Amino acid sequence: MIRSRSTIRVRYAETDMMGIAYHGNYLPWFEIGRTDLLRDHGVPYRDLEARGFRLPVLEVGVRYRRPALYDDELCIETTLAERPVLRIRLDYRLLRGEELLATGFTTHAFINPEGQPVRPPPDFVEAMARAFS
């Protein structure tokens, strides 16, 4: 299992007139966690894309528990519980201090620029093997 932690602050533009973060903003916040986790473990997403690999979302789920509010400092905890082979599932916890605001997950697959499923590149496989050892 590997983890990363990312910190964000809820911007005014991400909220409604009551100062509550719009539910759709949680997915971009999860993306921050996902890209930070990959970068932290030696596989920047930008490098994968530059070599023609894509990781489209196959499935997503979010459970909202408490609202995020304007100017809150939030922590995104991202977990990759199993070493990925063809698909990659990440789990997320969004916290304000110790308070759990939301949980979620995304599942992705590797594809090439033509949209065909492919195996992950060897350096990704090696980086994950190191991270999970």
Structural topology:
Elements: E1 2-9, H1 26-40, H2 45-50, E2 57-64, E3 73-80, E4 87-96, E5 99-109, H3 122-132
Antiparallel strand pairs: 1-3, 2-5, 3-4, 4-5
Question: Would you mind describing this structure in some detail?
Answer:
- By secondary structure, the chain is α+β, with helices and mostly antiparallel strands.
- The chain has one domain (2-132): Roll (Thiol Ester Dehydrase, Chain A), CATH 3.10.129.
- The chain has 3 helices and 5 strands; from the N terminus they run βααββββα.
- It has helices spanning 26-40, 45-50, 122-132; strands spanning 2-9, 57-64, 73-80, 87-96, 99-109.
- A 5-stranded antiparallel sheet has the order 1-3-4-5-2, covered by helices on one side.
- β4 (87-96) and β5 form a beta hairpin.
- The model has no long low-confidence stretch (mean pLDDT 95).
The major beta sheet can be summarized as:
5 strands, antiparallel
CATH level-3 fold name: Thiol Ester Dehydrase, Chain A
- 3D shape: elongated
Say how many strands there are.
Answer: 5
Order of helices and strands: EHHEEEEH
Uncertain spans, ≥5 residues at pLDDT below 50?
Answer: none
CATH architecture: Roll
What's the alpha carbon Rg, rounded to whole Å? 16 Å
Individual helix count: 3
Question: Structural class of the helices, strands and pairings?
Answer: alpha+beta
State the distance separating the first and last CA atoms: 9 Å
Indicate the mean pLDDT.
95
Order of strands across the main sheet: 1-3-4-5-2
CATH homologous superfamily grouping: Hotdog Thioesterase
Number of domains: 1
Q: Percent helix among the residues? A: 10-25%
Percentage of residues in strands: 25-35%
Give the CATH class: Alpha Beta
